[in-house]
Design a protein that fits this description.
about 100 residues; Glutaredoxin; four-stranded mixed beta sheet; 2 helices; binds FE2/S2 (inorganic) cluster
Length: about 100
């Protein structure tokens, strides 16, 4: 596998011990992973999606981080939110409605 242009990191709430204890997975973050994966394929994006441990912004979850831009999004709890973020990546912009940092 070649290094992807974008890395989409979805918080799955894991703590150091491995147990998911935060908010993001309770708000459906991991349920969006298959949708994101399918959208990446459908759009032909050079991107990889993975899940992560807690990103310490639980109150704003589900949290999604886009690298290498280091753009942090919150309240990504729907396919519409994912679409807005993926559209922004493709357009070289940010999805302002979900921006955290
Ligand atoms: S559980 Fe996602 S930021 Fe803490």
């Amino acid at each position: 596998m070649e290094k992807p242009k974008y890395h989409i990191i979805v918080c799955a709430s894991f703590r150091v011990g491995g147990e998911p204890k935060g908010i993001c997975h309770k708000k459906g973050s991991t349920g969006l992973l298959p949708y994101i994966e399918n959208e990446i394929l459908d759009r032909g994006m050079d991107a990889l999606v993975t899940s992560s441990g807690c990103m310490k912004l639980c109150d704003s979850g589900p949290v999604v981080v886009i690298q290498p831009e280091n753009v942090w999004y919150g309240n990504v709890d729907s396919e519409d939110a994912v679409d807005a973020i993926l559209d922004a990546i493709e357009d070289g912009k940010t999805a302002s409605g979900y921006l955290l940092l």
